[in-house]
Every structure is written in structure tokens, then in C-alpha cells.
Amino acid sequence: MYLENIQFDFYKGFEGEDEIRFYANPKDVLFKQNDKGIILFRLWDAYFSQIIDELISNIENEVLPKFIIDYNTLEGWTWNNEAVLILEEEINWFIEKIESTILNREENIKDQFWSFECIINLHSYLKFVKENDLELRISKE
């Protein structure tokens, strides 16, 4: 997977509203939020909320990743704008659930989302992070 095939900005046009940011960087490089080596994916909070709501409504008896629990309960990273590390198993869970719950569903649910293109690009971004063994962080700005 190549970066040039991924659109990274799904926040433009929503300035002034809440923004979700994913930050990817090599594991051997100290993370700095505004560093030039960061691969940033931005999306409008409402797009992210739709994704999370869809994932949660389609799972049973599973433990959610901490970053999703914190997002839903308005705790942790949602209050302090600091980027929180997403664990490798949480990245894997997130990728698998986006695939099984949204992208590979038998019925066509594309029209239920304000930006299905955002979901496709977020999924590609997450797969790039996994394939290149990068660290991933998330923040709400």
C-alpha cells in the first residue's frame, strides 16, 4: 500500500468544529505532535462518530479498544488534546471491524454515511500503519 493513494484530510471545510487526528510515526523515532516525520490523518469528529457508532452497534460481547471507550465516555484523550497511543492489537481490531462491519457488509450501507470515502481512506491509512509497523496515536482537537 502506498501513501499517494490515500487522501489524508477529511476535516477541511469543518474548521472550528471538533477534529479527530491520527498521528503515525516510526517506532524508533520520538513522537512530537508537530514533527515533519509524522503522517497525519484528519477527519471531522462527526465522521469519526458515525464510524464508531456503526462498529459498536454491530458487535456483541467484545471488549472495545480503550481509545473507543474513552471517546464514548468523553474521558481520557478527548479532554486534554494530547495524542494517545493506540496499541497494535487495537489497530488490528479497528481494521478488522471496519472491514467486517462496514466495508464487506452484504447490504449496501454506503448511503448511511456522510463520507464513505473517508472510511475507505481511513481504512487504507490504518493498513499502511500496520504494514509498516508504525506507532499510531489519536487526539481530539
- Please tell me what the overall shape is: globular
Radius of gyration: 14 Å
Please count the beta strands (DSSP E, at least 2 residues each): 5
Number of helices: 5
The helix/strand class is alpha+beta
What is the end-to-end distance? Answer: 28 Å
Output the strand order for the largest sheet: 1-3-2-5-4
Estimate the helix proportion, in percent.
40-55%
- Outline the biggest β-sheet: 5 strands, mixed
Order of helices and strands: EEEHHHEHHE
The portion of residues forming beta strands comes to 15-25%
Average pLDDT reading: 86
At a glance:
The protein is α+β, with helices and mostly antiparallel strands and 141 residues long. The chain has five helices and five strands.
Provide an overview of this structure.
The structure is a single chain. It is built from five helices and five strands, in the order E-E-E-H-H-H-E-H-H-E. It is α+β, with helices and mostly antiparallel strands and 141 residues long. Strands 1-3-2-5-4 form a five-stranded mixed beta sheet. The longest helix is centred in the last third of the chain and has 16 residues. The chain is globular. The two termini are 28 Å apart.
